[in-house]
Amino acid sequence: MATENTIMAISYLDWIALGIFIVCWYGYTTFARKRARTTHSLSSILRQLRIDWMATLTRKDHQIADAALLGNVERTVTFFASSTILVLAGVLTVLASAEKLMVVLQSIPFTAVTSTEKVQVKLFLLALIFVFAFFKFTWAIRQFGFVSVLMGVAPQYRSPDYTEEQRDMYVRHSAKVLDQAGHEYNNGLRAYYFALAFLMWFIHPFFFIGTTLLVVWVLYRREYRSRILRSLLATKGLVPGKQQQE
Description:
The chain has one domain. Helix content is 77%, strand content 0%. The chain has nine helices and no strands. The longest helix has 37 residues, at 116-152. The chain crosses the membrane at residues 7-28, 79-98, 119-141, 192-220.
């Protein structure tokens, strides 16, 4: 009965806003993954640069600098994973005192009429977003750990025990693991972006819808129209737009 009352407390506008949020998040993730196959983006150029990195790795006698670079990335992902736990703990703490949060929200201009049950539902969903982000970050950490193992067994430059075909196979597959780790890290960061949009739901569903669309626009601009993308593509003699089919 309590669950039914909670569901009834959420208005149709809230359900519509939540639906748009889910569609935008899932839709953009799917769109970005498929579009990267045909259009130059941060994802596509970083994939190529990771292949180049692994290829360069096999032409070195030592990988000390490469291990340090990978360690810096791992520390960054670990920082976000640790921060996510702290944020999640904060959300759960606020969940226990939803009545006080409701009073604060009602004092903010433009805040829609709310109830304790609605606030609790929103906090619970917000907690789920950070749980999702935590799993993405920790999986990225593990995959970066796999890359460090692959670096440790990289074919030595002067070793006669490896053929060119074996070296190429190592480059392709190790770069794929590194690329997958990068994608998981990116998915965790994307969860943070959408969590910021989700916060506007506590104010008003229209604000929630607006900030969700704004986040999608920001992500698209950075992925396909940013200055950093043009600079990265320039290192390979490329420009933003459709990829040349070979």
